[in-house]
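Researcher: Before we compare anything, I want clean individual predictions. No alignment, no superposition, just each chain on its own. First chain goes here; please echo the sequence and then give the structure tokens.
Model: Echoing the first chain and its structure:
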Amino acid sequence: MLIHPDRLFSSEPTQRKIARRLFEEIRTLPIVSPHGHTEAAWFASNRPFPDAAQLFVQPDHYIFRMLYSQGVSLEDLEIGQPAPKNPRKIWRIFARHYYLFRGTPTRMWLDYAFQELFGMQDRLSEGNADFYFDSITEKLHTPEFLPRALYDRFGLEVLATTDSPLDSLADHKAIGESNWKARIIPTFRPDPLVDPDFQGFSANLKNLAELTGEDTSTWQGYLSALRSARKRFRELGCTATDHGHPTARTADLSETEAAKLFRRVVAGTTDAEETELFRAQMLMEMARMSLEDGLVMQIHPGSFRNHDRQLFERYGRDMGADIPRPTNYVDALRPLLDRFGNERDLTIILFTLDESTYSRELAPLAGHYPCLRLGPPWWFHDSPEGMMRYRERVTETAGFYNTAGFNDDTRAFLGIPGRHDMARRMDCCFLAKLVAEHRLDEDEALEVARDLTYNLVKKAYRL
């Protein structure tokens, strides 16, 4: 077998037995995936995924960034090509370098999919690369491996995509108008319209004006256009927004000050400080709108995005060159929390790439303000070690119930079950230790396990 039935459980016998019992009770609970980057088009068309390389390698920056770091060129992987000319070659390159993923969560996610979905028993290598490629590609063209069939097979209850306000959402509409009863919903990601540094920002404002009929050259018209876009998303089931700002900074400008700043943004005359101030004000405006329309607000700060300038200029965004940086929350969020922190009808889910903030800033903030919840370990820390560090540093101050369950945040659709399996096992591992140390009774641990797996995420995201 590629994966061991006791993987991730403690090597200490008492804790391992408790973790087994807890996990068995939650193992088959439905998967709720409230934040990710899969594509609604897959389910609207329900066409087969083309081949193993296009399914596993090309869309997943966890994979190709590792290969790139070891000298594999993105040209050889045909990254950015909508229809690669030689997918078998891409797969062979991947297989030849599979050893690079030893000890990483990516390896566990992949082995889970290879064994549980495709029945593989031998580890992927250069020697069996063609067997893997042919076996996976053949199965992908059977009815059982069509996107909708896999959605049902995975036990998904809700799957959220991440979408620009400029997206037509035609694929979401097509899913809703079909006879298929799955719940696939959009998430409102306004970065292209609230970040003046975003590529094409000026053109994006004009496109928003065309979509909404509002005058986005004025401050009030701009805000009205964003409200209109949010309404369109909500009509298609959206329950959350998502904000990928460089920092967590917020601001509370007067209407006059905000309008003056916006005029400078539209004119393209802001400096770096004013651009950051505008992003900070827009987090305040998004929170205000969330209090009005009920959308849950997610803030994902702290990434220096597209750090590799050459790669960005050649391939565009999201090529695996995003790097974590230190992030301040206590001071940065103060203006927003002064205004909305005690609102019980507002939910703001905070994420971090700066683990030093867990016990120093985030847990104390979420352990006090009614509007705040802590998102799960994210991106670089979506790993067994990252999950354990999170529980150890957050629980003592924020408890379990000021956290928001788990989300997989993935572009790799077939990686979803493996990611949730890992999170469930790590939560059971942590809870088993508390039970073994007589800090929690096992019946309480089981209730917490169910909540962390299913109930908290539905409550936090209003699903």
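Researcher: Okay. Second chain, same rules.
Model: Second chain and its structure:
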Amino acid sequence: MDALRTPDERFVGLPDYPFEPHYLEVPSGDGGPPLRVQYLDEGPRDGAVVLLLHGEPSWSYLYRHMLPVLTAAGLRAVAPDLIGFGRSDKPTERDDYTYQRHVDWMHAVLEQLDLAEITLVAQDWGGLIGLRIVGERPEKFARVVAANTFLPTGDRSPGKGFLAWQRYSQETPTFAVGNIVNGGCTTDLSPAVIAAYDAPFPDDRYQAGARQFPTLVPTSPDDPAAPANRRAWEGLRAFTKPFLCAFSDHDPVTGGGDRTLRAEIPGCEGQPHTTIEGGGHFLQEDCGPRLANVIVDFVRSTTG
């Protein structure tokens, strides 16, 4: 497996992103050299762990306005860049990216960091990967916050909004990541912030993962990832630990997905599920501090 590594200078001087990068290596999955994963690790080492998983086509930069709120509350915030995104390595071939490999890569990250009693915060593909892991390894998690995400099995339509995005992602000749993120927000991002989302991708050779991700979402019952996601749902239907939905009110992609989670996951019962008003798909950009405070309150109210 051949992989590219975005030059460090691409990440110099990004707005509101003073965080120190950390690195580890995970098996590639094809027997070749390991792949490097970048992650942020902020706050006290003995604080309750909050794992922040981003989605498509963003990276840990998405959580920059939430990290200070979480760490000020005494929480340890860990935010990895998925393989193919941010400062993590980027395999060059689209076929190198599979749903299973992304799950395996994140399993390896959690094992190497030896994280336990995790509060998962998952948005977009962060949920497709993170909720799958919760279903497979529930003992590692203390609670979950799901924000604009879902765990599809292909047994029901993902909705017109997602299907439109999937078509666009494959048909557009230029995959302008910063503009895509901006289009998924209710606020207008500054040119400097848009450039920060473009930073991991100096040219389209680095975008194999970003291009491939939308095609990996199970949209039919015979999708290769469907059986594993169905098994993960069995675990989620037995998950009784606290599970909170914090979806925004202006997301055409995952709007309404919280209803399925709340209906089928026992840990959702009695929790203070909330709608983040004024947020788009990337609610971390539109309402980051508000979402962070929801997480802080949830951790405090369900601890001890």
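Researcher: What stands out in the second chain?
Model: Residues 107 and 261 are 22 Å apart (CA to CA). Additionally, Residues 3-301 form a domain with the Rossmann fold fold (CATH 3.40.50.1820).
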